[in-house]
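Q: A reviewer asked whether we had any structural model of the full assembly, not just the individual parts. We don't, so I'm hoping you can provide one. Inputs are below.
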Amino acid sequence: MARTLKFNIFRYNPQDPESTPHMESFVLEETDSMTLFIVLNRIREEQDPSLQFDFCCRAGICGSCGMVINGRPGLACHTKTRDLPDEITLLPLPVYQLVGDLSVDTGAWFRELYDTVESWIHTKKVFDPTAPEERMENEVAEAIYELDRCVECGCCVAACGTARLRPDFLGAAGLNRVGRFLIDPRDERTEQDYYQIIGNDMGIFGCMGLLACEDVCPKHMPLQDQLGFLRRKMGITALKTFFKK
Amino acid sequence: MSVPLTANHKSLQCRRLDGLLDWAQMLSGAGLIGFMWMHMTLVASVVISPGIMNAIAGFFEATGLAQVGGPLVFLLFLAHFALAARKIPFRLEGQKTIWEHARLLRHADTWLWVVQVVSAMVILIMGAIHMWVVLSDLPITAVKSAERIRSGAWIFFYLLLLPLAELHVGIGLYRIAVKWGFAGRAERKGLKRGENLLTLVFITIGVLTLVRFWFLKG
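A: Here is a predicted structure for the entire assembly that you could use as a starting point for your response.
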């Protein structure tokens, strides 16, 4: 027999001076293979057209529908109601600027992050559009691709205790991004260059190892291993610099 | 053509201090974990025989290890607190944020961090009292320790300090292993189980030691 589900959803429109933050309840009959993406669309179509939430691909690729589901950050399109209890609370992701209801601006946060970590290949080679692409070992390409799978949904940062305590923390997504360039042979930055970006408490040494990032990541990115690798790498760089002087 | 921005900036100084402080936090923690395990094992020798414990204590005093090592461990203890405190929110605002975060997230490792911080505060005070009482009244003997534990409310003092210290040590070791990548994703679950077991074993040894002291007559 189909369950009747109750959804407690955070409502607030910062653009509307009359609006105040509050929770609003909606009730829906559960259907087969129902995801929160389906739930939110049905609520918007059938009950309240003013409900704001982000979505694009509905397949865990675009990373738009990140929200706090019963206390845990996750993707609405990836979350099936059959894995949840009868009462479900949905909140917008913390850390990011609220657009309205469940919609937050992760884009501005990630743009600033990528400026900070200089998220592009740094090379002195002049690009020749007529030359064949430089070859790289398949293993290296796969390792880079593994770290490039991040969809920037922002769940890891929203679940991070350090990010909640210090707004300048780069978070697992930012550190993973640096790790991606660190293993890319085309990037000519040295360990010292990377150390200047992440060798501080805003970067890898700020990470307290709570590993909520690893546990909530909808793409199951290898964040624990990546953070450990960066801490050892940057830790050794700090020692090298210290003993060279 | 992309232009390297950081690579050519020779004037930018490498900020190595945060990295060195992170090393110091980890190494001081690891040192204290080693000390705590050794300490617990040696004190627990009283369970086998008070004579063995007296002989061990006598050796540490005869070689000057207790007189010199004791204060050094105390300094390491304070240094570790100062280093780890860089990450602790001391303002109410931060405390409320992390508490609400942990409560909402219901994530075991986040709660373990809260336990680590709260136990650290209690250990800072109670550990300091313990070290002062023991080191200001050398030599250490099984009978003197037993008398102290039976007097006043000392038994309750140790029944609180023991599990908190062992929890802090256990979580600390787990945290070092996952933070520095000594244990990878595949090892995390097993490491946590092993760590819980080890903590339980040391708490049991500690309780047995307290029971032995309680019934030890001079």
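A: Points you may want to mention in the reply: Chain A touches chain B through 55 residues (CB under 8 Å). The mean pLDDT of chain A is 93.
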